[in-house]
Design brief:
Layout: E1 2-7, H1 14-23, E2 32-35, E3 39-44, H2 46-58, E4 63-67, H3 73-77, H4 79-95, H5 101-116, H6 119-124, H7 133-160
Antiparallel strand pairs: 1-3, 1-4, 2-3
Length: about 160
């Protein structure tokens, strides 16, 4: 797989991604995109990266192409599962209605947690409500953990300045 880094495309450009999907990427069932702060990335099969480069040159969007190297260990471990998920989420991000985001988030989380919601897992995390509220407890733990780690990242970056 290749990674096309769209330099200076840090905001969501739904039309750009839709155009690339409709003109080039529609046959690639693993392509996906992410925002990385000051740039965006598109990951796709090698044969489509050249076509994307040609399109980006015409539209004067700066880019770099490299091999895709996953740096998240958990993603590496389950990459064959993550690629279709990343692809589906990218397509969904282009077509959803703005007022559907919370409902979509609920469905995405529930569709992952429901099949793994074993009694053993619930007991491991000390969740006492087995009627589904444990999903909310787990998400709350995740939110607090994420906010804490995000705070450390922001703190470290402000110390460097």
């Amino acid at each position: 797989m290749k990674e096309v880094k769209l330099l200076k495309v840090s905001t969501y450009d739904r039309e750009l991604f839709k155009t690339l999907y409709e003109k080039i990427l529609y046959k690639d069932n693993t392509w996906h995109f992410f925002y990385e702060g000051v740039f965006s990335v598109i990951r796709c099969k090698r044969k489509y990266a050249k076509q994307i480069a040609k399109f980006l040159k015409k539209t004067k969007i700066e880019y770099e192409i490299s091999d895709y190297e996953e740096d998240q260990e958990i993603t590496k471990k389950y990459l064959s599962c993550f690629l279709p998920i990343f692809h589906s989420y990218s397509v969904l991000a282009m077509i959803y209605e703005d007022d559907e985001i919370l409902t979509l988030l609920h469905r995405i989380v529930h569709c992952f947690l429901n099949p793994i919601g074993s009694i053993e897992l619930i007991k491991k995390y000390n969740y006492t409500n087995l009627a589904g509220a444990w999903e909310s407890h787990l998400l709350s733990d995740l939110a607090i953990s994420h906010a804490h780690s995000r705070g450390r990242i922001v703190e470290r970056s402000s110390q460097k300045q």
